[in-house]
Amino acid sequence: MKLVARTVSILTLGLVLAACGGERRRATEGTRPESNKPVTIKGSDTMVILTQRLAEEYMKRTPGSVLQVNGGGSGTGIAALINGSIDLAMASRPMKDEEKQQAAKSRGAEIVEQAVALDGLGVFVHEANPVHALTVAQLKDIFQGKTKNWKEVGGADAPIILYGRESSSGTYDYFREHVLEKGDFAPAVQTLQGTAAIINAVGRDRNGIGYGGIAYAKDVRPLAIAAAGKPAVAPSEATVADNSYPLSRKLFFYYPKNAPPRVSEFVLWSLTTDAQALVTKVGYFPLQNPGK
């Protein structure tokens, strides 16, 4: 009995010490310097490869800094910004006014919108597809299911297989607004999560067509696109910068104005010459006037 009692006492003491240790760890974490806390970033799948590359370089240059980058779609990132679970949202579309109002109310400060890169939203086909250009009107008819065979737009006699993004994607919203004029996608569109998945699908499907950030264009061919009454234009740094490519857009960071310096300092660094050079290396296009 004495041995049992002694064993119980030792176990009890061990649990008490463990509990005290846990309290000390939590106390230490609670007093961790604000500058050393991670910057949590979430949102646009289009921007994940870009922001990860920027974050990696920034952490190399800024000892002690930690940045955590996750995708999920622009809508997911914006929702997380509103509910306060992240520091910085990535979005491949502008935040809506009501979203900014909700975020400002929940975060207690105005929301800062900062463009970090330019993108020509690409429309991709298989490299063997004979079609090299489409009008915005033709794209609309294709993705709404009115045009169903490639021969209707100068291609082979083959069915058009559609690939698109999930509804939480900013790229989905952008394409729906600027190409479909806020109309609905055809039920035949195969919804995939992320532009990389669309590229993989189109790269294997001679009859496929999909859309996404231009930086992902590998082993597929981006089409030249023609706005109404204008010649077809291929996406490039020059045509995106001057907006002659019809599907030119900006990629954004969003954060509350009262965010700690560790957040705003990273965003400001992303506008530097070195950071904008990384934008080009990733495959997007640099801002013409960073900081504006």
What's the domain count?
2
CATH T-level fold name of the largest domain: D-Maltodextrin-Binding Protein, domain 2
Secondary-structure class: alpha/beta
Strand content: 15-25%
Globally, the shape reads elongated
- How are the strands of the largest sheet arranged? 2-1-3-12-4
Total number of strands: 12
Query: What is the H/E string?
Result: HEHEHEHEEEHEHEHEEEHEHH
End-to-end gap: 78 Å
The major beta sheet can be summarized as: 5 strands, mixed
- Write the CATH homologous superfamily of the largest domain: Periplasmic binding protein-like II
Continuous helix count: 10
The CATH C-level class name of the largest domain: Alpha Beta
Description:
The chain is α/β, with parallel strands linked by helices and 292 residues long. It folds into two domains: 34-119 and 250-282, D-Maltodextrin-Binding Protein, domain 2, CATH 3.40.190.10; 122-241, 3-Layer(aba) Sandwich (D-Maltodextrin-Binding Protein, domain 2), CATH 3.40.190.10. The protein is 40% helix and 20% strand. The chain contains ten helices and twelve strands. The chain has helices at 2-30, 45-61, 74-83, 97-107, 136-143, 170-178, 195-204, 237-241, 261-269, 273-282, and strands at 39-43, 67-72, 88-91, 111-120, 122-125, 133-135, 161-165, 190-192, 208-212, 221-222, 224-226, 248-256. The chain is elongated and about 60 Å long.
